[in-house]
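Posting this for the archive.
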Amino acid sequence: MSGAVEARIAELGLTLPEVVPPLASYQPAVQSGVYVYTAGQLPMVEGKLAVTGKVGAEVTPEEAKDLARTCALNALAAVKSVAGDLDRIARVVKVVGFVASAPDFTGQPGVINGASELLGEVLGDKGVHARSAVGVAVLPLDAPVEVEFQVELTEA
């Protein structure tokens, strides 16, 4: 079933992907009460990372920002897998973004804006959230970026 949120995703020329299978011993998302917490989502497309490396070295900030959008779409798919319907999102509470950064790269907030801006485009005011953008030495599979969400749901 697809509702208004998925229709908006389609209007933007995007497709909600299948849930990325876990790379280790965890679930893509879990629900606790009215909250859904996603696992960190990599910019996987059809089971693969299109780009690897450090932002500010092998990966440009602009490429990384686009990859953060992909992470956000993957996180929305993970939310749907437990909520059943993205229209149940009351609001995005928190976004945490990790950027595998070259030692002198300090533009992590601009990279994670890719995820934040996508949430605004798709969810409007419900997509406004608190956020952390953190630079790290390395991410799983040498991914340039990883994003996780906490969302609040309406009652089913």
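The chain has a mean pLDDT of 96. Strands lie at 29-32, 35-38, 44-45, 48-49, 89-100, 130-136, 145-153.
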